[in-house]
Amino acid sequence: MVRLILVFQLLVSYLAISASPIHEVPFRTIEGKLTTLSDLKEGPVLIVNVASECGYTGQYAGLQILHERYAKRGLNIVAFPCNDFGGQEPGSEEEIKEFCKKKFNVAFSMTSKVKVRGEDSHPLYKLLTEEKTNPTFFGHLKWNFEKFLIDRDGKVVNRFRTRVRPTSDELTSAIEWALMDNKTQKEQYDKVGPPPLLEYCERQIARTMHWQGAPWLMRKVREEEERTSEMVKELKLKPGMAVADIGSGNGYHTLMMAEIIGNKGTAYAVDIQPEMLRMLEDRANKAGMKNIKSIENRYWDTDLPDSSIDFALMADVYHEFSHPEQMLSSIRRALKPQGIVTLLEFREEDLKVPIKPEHKMSKEQVIKEMKKNGFKLSRSYDKLPWQHLLFFQVDTDADLKGVDKSG
Questions:
Q1: Domain residue spans of the chain
Q2: Measured distance CA(133)–CA(57) in Å, rounded
Q3: What is the pTM of this model?
Q4: How would you classify the pairing of strands 45-50 and 387-394?
Q5: Is 82 a catalytic residue?
Q6: How confident is the model over 217-250, as pLDDT tens digits?
Q7: How far apart are CA 19 and CA 152, in angstroms?
Q8: Whole-number Å distance between alpha carbons of 318 and 322
Q9: Residue of 54, 82, 100, 201 marked catalytic
Q10: Which residue among 82, 158, 224, 350 is least enclosed by CB atoms within 10 Å?
């Protein structure tokens, strides 16, 4: 135990002087040979904790497919057998190796059995799960067959929980991106964008509300439930301002904001679904509003002009961003000096708020993620019945090391 703690402390210290400490963590192969990730073929690495008697053991087949598809292009798969979850890996290394070869014809790298949770967890898994050493994808493992994707520089760039199949679009698109060199990634950024995330800072990213659910946004009881008029008043908008409703949907908030800023102002309605924007435009035309500009943005960029807005609102949408860092970087660029960005999010702390858990955020979580992306809290309004209303400004002194600023 003491030895493991000392090893981990040394590895954390090494982080300060090494660009890729994950590459230098020693582990033993399933044959017993001491090695590190740096001894593998140069390229991205997919690390998976595996078990032979798990309901997800069939994922070995998908991992082998990935190996056959991508190994020649540089992908390394390393499977770490563990007995931590349900005692589902009871066998010896020799038995595990024989089972994997006979049942799935496994040809990718495997290690000796390790622990992946608790104080005795392997130093590599400590690096992967501690917030200090993996600030974007930290968090304890919950079951077998969780996957970490590490780029060729040793940075964890994506994480996939047990239920994400090895051959799923989410995982294969992330692998394809990680296999690209920096030049190709830059060339492809505007065309297809980086791969989406399924979780961020130990938070599950919610699915985007489909445009067919738009009537719910206009429900008659919304004012009673959320006191929207009180919220909009608290935004303290002024005539002539340039504002953006990011994730505008069919314009429930956009039209209210546009009315306040008047004809001398501009309200940008930003949404990824053209159907939502068409509904918004129909509502604006019926109301005779001429100061609204629609932007059908990309998932990873608001596509707002640089230095174009005084104020940005994200009303119950930030938790759905599949590219949170790129989107927040885009918003930073779009804000004028002293500009404000505001998040309205259903309160995770209040179990009485009748919203699915993945569509709620705690105040602490919002502030943590905004701080990580270069924003500081300027004020908050805590009197709404269901939601947090948090106001942020750009923190010019923020350390954005490790944050994807390509957006």
A1: 2-195, 211-394
A2: 29
A3: 0.91
A4: unpaired
A5: no
A6: 989 999 999 999 999 999 999 999 999 999 999 9
A7: 11
A8: 9
A9: 54
A10: 224
